[in-house]
């Protein structure tokens, strides 16, 4: 006859033996923990905006003149630069940008995507008034920064068919040259296929020869998640900030194939390797039109003493004419046109050298 105490003992033994089995199988049975995904409502709003931008760009193609006379008398509008500011804090350098834009009203447009959950003081400068676009929340280590940039591109495409170049900047960026220098550099660069203008975007197949770093970025969403759309050997790295041509802006807004991979949230345990905005744009453009890109950026960043993924932030004591001239230097065809990061306290010393240095070549 079985002892009445045998059953509880047996249950306890089985429970004890099952604990290692649970720990072994749990990762396979339970979904991995990820960072927050983009809300479906935000994604739907964006898709509607992108469709309008694509349709508008298709219908905005100019029709050829019917005769030589009409061609002679028809004036083609001057190309414009769309400045796209992506921010989650005050645009403290707007007075400096106002000086930069002054006298060139018909050669640029300006658009600001400000995180709606940040408390921003509206800039007093005329160029920035009324230029805030409908925005969604942004978060570091998430594809929301890609969405915000695409949202800015789509808005600028819709707003003005003469926007031919799209410069993505942050609130900590400053200009390094006067406006005509940038404008002439963009219009004179036509080294792409069929003498087309190129986009200025950094594209690297390694990260300063650190293959482990690139490897960790690729697998930040999980093993083999990026396949088959993004093979590892086609995964690229680059700067978050760029200047795109109109055809590349349309290409970015139209894309759904790569976006369905890059919009996936990173695993929580790999969040330190999650920088989607530094990979989506260079990967997409390098896969679709590598010859149409310079593969370098026009925005200078100092990574010599970066902290937690943030580059060096210049303080007011570092601002000088010699710093501006040093930041302009580049090993590429064109010198750097913008620089980051500058602390808000740099505004006053920057304004003191704006006319004599920054806005004078």
Automatic annotation (TrEMBL):
Q: Where in the cell is it found?
A: Membrane
Query: What is the membrane topology noted in the UniProt record heading this document?
Result: Single-pass type II membrane protein
- Just give the chief location class: membrane
Q: Name one GO cellular component term.
A: membrane
Task: Print the keywords alphabetically.
Answer: Glycoprotein, Glycosyltransferase, Membrane, Signal, Transferase
User: Which positions make up the signal peptide?
Assistant: 1-24
- MF terms (GO), sorted A to Z: glycosyltransferase activity
Output the Pfam families linked to this UniProt entry: Branch
Q: Which InterPro entries match?
A: BC10-like (IPR044174), Glyco_trans_14 (IPR003406)
PANTHER family tied to this protein = CORE-2/I-BRANCHING BETA-1,6-N-ACETYLGLUCOSAMINYLTRANSFERASE FAMILY PROTEIN-RELATED, CORE-2_I-BRANCHING BETA-1,6-N-ACETYLGLUCOSAMINYLTRANSFERASE FAMILY PROTEIN
**Can you name this protein?**
Core-2/I-branching beta-1,6-N-acetylglucosaminyltransferase family protein
Q: Which organism is it from?
A: Miscanthus lutarioriparius
